[in-house]
Amino acid sequence: MSKKNKPTNQKVMSFIEKARRAQIVECAIETIAEVGYAQASLGQIAKRAKISKGVISYHFANKEELMEQIPIEYYKAWHTYIFPRIEAQKSPKEMLRVYIESNLTFIDQNRQHVFAVIEMVSNTRTADGKLQFAAELDEAILLPIENILTLGMQEGVFREFTKSSARVMALTIRSAVDGFTLELTRKPHLDVQEYTRELVTIFDKSTKK
Amino acid sequence: MSKKNKPTNQKVMSFIEKARRAQIVECAIETIAEVGYAQASLGQIAKRAKISKGVISYHFANKEELMEQIPIEYYKAWHTYIFPRIEAQKSPKEMLRVYIESNLTFIDQNRQHVFAVIEMVSNTRTADGKLQFAAELDEAILLPIENILTLGMQEGVFREFTKSSARVMALTIRSAVDGFTLELTRKPHLDVQEYTRELVTIFDKSTKK
Amino acid sequence: MSKKNKPTNQKVMSFIEKARRAQIVECAIETIAEVGYAQASLGQIAKRAKISKGVISYHFANKEELMEQIPIEYYKAWHTYIFPRIEAQKSPKEMLRVYIESNLTFIDQNRQHVFAVIEMVSNTRTADGKLQFAAELDEAILLPIENILTLGMQEGVFREFTKSSARVMALTIRSAVDGFTLELTRKPHLDVQEYTRELVTIFDKSTKK
Amino acid sequence: MSKKNKPTNQKVMSFIEKARRAQIVECAIETIAEVGYAQASLGQIAKRAKISKGVISYHFANKEELMEQIPIEYYKAWHTYIFPRIEAQKSPKEMLRVYIESNLTFIDQNRQHVFAVIEMVSNTRTADGKLQFAAELDEAILLPIENILTLGMQEGVFREFTKSSARVMALTIRSAVDGFTLELTRKPHLDVQEYTRELVTIFDKSTKK
DNA sequence: TATGAATGAGCCTTCATTCAT
DNA sequence: AATGAATGAAGGCTCATTCAT
């Protein structure tokens, strides 16, 4: 994944160490959100964190390791927020509604972080030029949607989906959520509730029997 | 838009000059598509084009002017491809189908260019950190969808749309198309026809009365 | 003066920082003195200082900030050297003699620095092509001469001077000093004492009643 | 003088060739006068001359050869203007007055050319970093003054001068003339006649017995 | 003779990274 | 655990020069 092998000896981190890393990651997120990935140099990040550049290098093996934390942290927070809400629902139709609602709410409440992740995903590459997080992260994000669709189909409340048509449906829902993010970036005063209602309607209709 | 005023005196370009510029733009597209926007330095582009770095500076005032050509050319080609096909349709429903079909076909046939534009859109910023093309380009792309939706509503074949719900619908369709692009990048052997059919189905259902 | 606003927040510099900057400025002076302003690239300066190019950028915001130090330091040193000597004199005639003597001595003892400043003055331009230091620095240098002339006239030991004829006289004295500098550059083994005596004689005669 | 040996086979130049070279030199003078030596690239000069950059390279072996013409042409014109006027005088005192007067007039009437020469003299270096024209040109310019001084001394109208005190006197006069040039650059609306009168007075007094 | 095109060296600057303290 | 200092590679750009046409 990275040029340098990640150290297998996952050092046990002290509490302070963890806190310091978290603080730096936080600053990295803010920086990316404000000036964009390309301008988010270690210098910029350090300045915002009011620490010296060296500190970052001290706590992270390299820039890459720091940047990796951003989607990791994001995914953790996202997972924690989304899943309990979905699992609290009984019907697939409700699950889908809640998936859309909770995603949009989560994005609305974590704008900086979301934006930083988007910046990263579209910028970070492996040595051979492939997009970095695309594959793995996306599967993790698509799977729950596909599961809901499958469940709904089995229960007879959704229309028929083949494996691949379920994937297209899942990708479209996912894209709609990402599209909302971009629109929110462009129009920060967007009426989130209305947008949510519309998306729910759209995907309610398009999954109905 | 740029710090340096764009020269209004569009110099008359010789045929050769035009061809050379086009060739360099082509190489820039390839380079961005392969290594990403951030890594697409003039050096990289020149290497791919097997010319010296200076040649690029000779034909373009600066990197910005070169990069600007990419979405400009893209939008021209897109417009030329999409619109006649839509206008050949009689019903809004057909128009929407053809919008989706022709977009996916166009993307499939211009993968590199599309990808390069996506990279650019998500990377290029103005001096104050705002995304560059977001606003203007997006309106140009969303408007035709909104027009189709409005038309379909007036003709009574689509459900009711308020101005803002039509916009959400349009954004969702647009997002679905962009989502296809990303998926195509990740899975180059994707069954494009099937994907197209599914998207048509999804948005047929979600716009229906 | 410069495109980038000069930071008003004069950062408190550590002793080491000051010393390093001074050392780099010193090397810049040497470099300009040896190869001329046009050839005095950061690379050249760094090579002479046996440091990497980056170090200069680390200590100075940009080349301009480094170069600005040269006349600033020069003027400080010049002022410190010249003025006490003039003020120690009682008569305007002695003041004029000492002005010439101390200037020539100062130049003789700071050949490189003087030369570097001359190079800068005749090379540095503002964006609109005007010579940079010409105006401001020159007034600061001419004024003391004009004051001596005025004083001598009031005391009746110098001939009459109008405001503008005093200026021509001052300019001529200043030019003679600068001319000495150039001659010293061309003939490093010049007899400075004799040259001084002659200049004193010339301007003694030409100011006499 | 130059890195590349000047071709010994001084090709006989056609009239047209001479005219073209003269035109280019003229443009080079204008360019230097307006934007300064450092900014006077072949591109700039070519643009002003409304010819292609290649033309310059075609007519001059390299930039250096072009630039060399500027002081050469200047010296020719200067010589042609100054000497007949001096030789028309009978007494050394008159000669000195006319030397100053005609120099200032010449400078006033050839501002651009004079300024371009100053820029060049202070910028052009040989490979070893020495100022280029300093030596040779200066002797040619100082000698006539020294001759006047010697003559005046022999005729008993000037005070005693040793060889080296005559040189200092000559240098001072020369410096005064150069100082006038700089002042003229800074204050284009200078009263040239008054300045001339003052200089004549100054050097009349300082050479008098 | 003149041109447009191309080259390649050099410039200033930014930045991730290293290291002694 | 943190810092300031230094490095060196790479970036975009300018420019004198070369060359085929």
UniProtKB/TrEMBL annotation, chains A, B, C, D:
SUPFAM superfamilies: Homeodomain-like (SSF46689), Tetracyclin repressor-like, C-terminal domain (SSF48498). It comes from the Bacteria. The keyword DNA-binding applies. Keywords: DNA-binding. PROSITE patterns: HTH_TETR_1, HTH_TETR_2. GO terms for molecular function: DNA binding. This is TetR/AcrR family transcriptional regulator. The lineage of its organism: Bacteria, Bacillati, Bacillota, Bacilli, Bacillales.
